[in-house]
Amino acid sequence: MKLIDSHCHVHFQAYKDDMDEVVKRSLDAGVGMITVGTQSSTSKTAIELAEKYENVWATIGLHPNHLHKQEFFDEDELPPEEKATGKIKTRAEAFDPEYYRTLIDHPKVVAIGEFGLDYYRVPDHLDRDQVIADQEASCAQQLSFASEFDKPVVIHCRDAHEAQYELLKAEIEKGGLTKRGVIHSFTGSVEDARRYEELGFILGLNGILTFSKELQAVVKDIPLEQIVVETDAPYLTPPPYRGKRNEPAYVKFIAKLIAELHHVSFDEVADLTTNTTKTLFSI
Ligand SMILES: [Zn+2]
């Protein structure tokens, strides 16, 4: 494996017609992948896909955007049998430790996530304070679940780094999260990056880096040892494929840009990020 896409959703509905081709195309290009669950159904299907391939792993968890009914619901995510006919399905879910316990022992499950705080996507029709309280409770619940099973965590954090940092710190101070984890799709400041570094957290960078000059400036100041690469496929496609569906093989464009920003070779970024990903997820 030359590279590992540390965060994709290659088991989502967006790949229903060619999932195996997409996975094989990436593996043939030397790109392994961690396919990330976002709710009960997609946590299970992530494992089902990972079972089929060497160098494909899965995570299980409940994304904050699935805690409440929402309008932006993503058609590309769920299996067809879960789609309501004629209208958009906006089911809300709570984290159910009993359910996730049935998945956790699978050898291909390498982390808990993605979960965390998303203050950006708070549905307009709901009480903001309540939504945030619910997100924090679900996050704390999944942090202690990860501690209990000694797994690293995959954190989704949008516009909430202060609160997210405090939740992680509190769990670590309790003696939990010994495997730490990754702040996926990191878009914070240099200061945010330093604080996460103090906690022993890794930062995941994806196609946003190719669009955001601001993030590029931040990344120049982040040590390469703290970085892993990801696509978040099917979303956030980098150039030259921007506007099309993303896939794990395109993670090379992220590694290439990081190499340019740090004035090092592509191989150095590939080696370092692959090693960091392997260590973090014990793969
Ligand atoms: Zn994701």
Walk me through what this model shows.
With 283 residues, the chain is an alpha/beta fold. The protein has a single domain, classed as Alpha-Beta Barrel (TIM Barrel). It has 10 helices and 8 strands. It has helices at residues 19-28, 40-52, 97-104, 128-149, 161-173, 190-199, 208-211, 213-220, 251-262, 266-281; strands spanning 3-8, 31-36, 56-60, 109-118, 153-158, 181-184, 202-205, 227-229. An 8-stranded parallel sheet has the order 1-2-3-4-5-6-7-8. Helix 5 (161-173) links the parallel strand 5 and strand 6 (181-184). The protein is globular and about 45 Å long. It binds zinc ion (ZN). Zinc ion binds at residues 7, 9, 36, 114, 232.
> How would the global form be characterised?
globular
What structural class do the secondary elements suggest?
alpha/beta
Enumerate the strands of the largest sheet in spatial order, edge to edge or round the barrel.
1-2-3-4-5-6-7-8
Could you give the order of the helices and strands?
Answer: EHEHEHEHEHEHEHHEHH
Low-confidence stretches: 84-88
Overall structural domain count: 1
